[in-house]
Design a protein that fits this description.
about 400 residues, mainly alpha, globular
Length: about 400
């Protein structure tokens, strides 16, 4: 099979739409629906968001199971099942009356999320395109980067016409009527989409590292990905509180948040246009470094007044966040190969989701007991560790690529 064209393939665009739905209906809604549910049911916000964090924590366990299912059964059955389960879970959420029912509904929602969000989408694209999956992955992240931009206003508008239960039913219908048919179009396994074409063996990539020489790379990759997810989760859940502790207004926090989204999309667009001229590990280095630089801007904001330093944070952090998702997709394929990609990324996602789930609690406790200065110092320490791990991966990739180039072809 030849290298895919530079244009956006229709199936890739549709997978991007389905990933937008996956995040827009199963992750982002709770920033708006969470307080609505708490108020309507007479529950505390702490309970509602505590359950959400706990559900994220349990999804870390299921991530590796979903990854292995992708390798064994292929993308289509897993993603179709995920869409159906997401719809059923949202319907179930719309019917809950008790705290126990809410907990169960959120656990099912998080399990469904693992089947319809980035990890499964990236695995599907890697199965289809093999070593040439980098550009389609960039296309998908470019589309799905607008998930909050699309669904936050949509959910806010829907709440003007119905209660939170009705909104859940609309989100369920979107999964069933739009996402599920898209997932049904995904080839079950690589090459099954067109049997008249030769098997895509040339697209398979064994990776730069042999199976017995991957431990160090896996450890550094897990550290880098978990660190990035910890930082993004901490900032997204505590950003308004962080700026409040810094003496800045909620309006400035909203403005900075509005800047982060377009910057992550812009970073992905630049990466897509660069093609493969930038190595996979360098994408990771740029991502982790810009996340750190963003936090440096926040620390500087403790001493310098004005809005510009906070906007500079948003620009830098948005770039790092945008590239983080791409690095998570392309680095495992580059170093470990496309065989067993689902299981490998599932194992990495397990560690990443544990960090993601723990970040809100750690950040809140740090702010309450240590103050904003030490909290930002903690976040910068995490970011610095991530930068170090990314540079280690860069060194590993460069050495492995040099060794491969020096090896005579068989």
């Amino acid at each position: 099979m030849t290298r895919p064209a530079r244009r956006v393939e229709p199936l890739t665009l549709l997978i991007g739409v389905s990933m937008t739905i996956g995040y827009g209906t199963l992750y982002y809604p709770f920033a708006i629906l969470g307080p609505e549910i708490a108020r309507a049911q007479g529950w505390s916000n702490g309970f509602v968001f505590g359950v959400f964090s706990a559900a994220l924590l349990t999804s870390a366990v299921t991530a590796s199971l979903v990854g292995r299912a992708m390798d064994r059964f292929g993308a289509r059955p897993v993603m179709v099942t995920g869409s159906c389960l997401a719809a059923l879970a949202l319907v179930n959420l719309s019917l809950v009356q008790s705290m126990t029912g809410f907990v169960v509904a959120m656990l099912v929602i998080e399990f469904a999320s693992r089947m319809v969000q980035y990890e499964t989408g990236f695995a599907a694209l890697t199965a289809i395109h093999g070593r040439y999956a980098r550009r389609p992955i960039a296309h998908v992240t470019l589309v799905a980067g607008f998930a909050s931009t699309v669904f936050w206003p949509l959910i806010h508008w829907l709440l003007g016409y119905m209660d939170w239960r009705g909104v859940c039913l609309v989100l369920a219908a979107i999964n069933l009527l739009i996402a599920m048919p898209i997932h049904a179009m995904v080839p079950r396994r690589a090459g099954t989409h067109d049997r008249s074409q030769p098997a895509p063996a040339p697209n398979r990539d064994p990776g730069l590292l042999k199976p017995g020489n991957r431990t160090a790379a896996f450890v550094f990759m897990a550290i880098a990905f978990a660190g990035g997810s910890f930082l993004m989760s901490a900032v997204h859940t505590s950003f308004f509180l962080i700026l409040s502790e810094m003496g800045r207004t909620a309006a400035l926090a909203a403005l900075a948040g509005a800047v982060i989204g377009p910057m992550q999309v812009a970073a992905r667009l630049i990466e897509m246009l660069s093609g493969e001229r930038v190595s996979s590990s360098v994408v990771g280095v740029i991502s982790s470094t810009t996340l750190l630089l963003g936090l440096v801007c926040l620390v500087a904001g403790l001493w310098f007044d004005g809005e510009l330093i906070v906007i500079a944070f948003a620009v830098s952090f948005g770039i790092g966040q945008g590239l983080n998702f791409i690095a998570r997709a392309i680095l495992p394929a580059r170093l470990f190969g496309t065989e067993g990609y689902g299981a490998m990324t599932g194992n990495l996602a397990t560690l990443r989701l544990l960090a993601m789930a723990g970040a809100p609690v750690c950040t809140a406790l740090a702010i309450s007991h240590a103050g904003i200065g030490l909290t930002l110092a903690l976040l910068m320490l995490v970011a610095a560790v991530g930068v170090s791990a990314s540079w280690a991966l860069c060194l590993i990739e460069n050495r492995a690529a040099a060794a491969e180039a020096a090896t005579p072809a068989a």
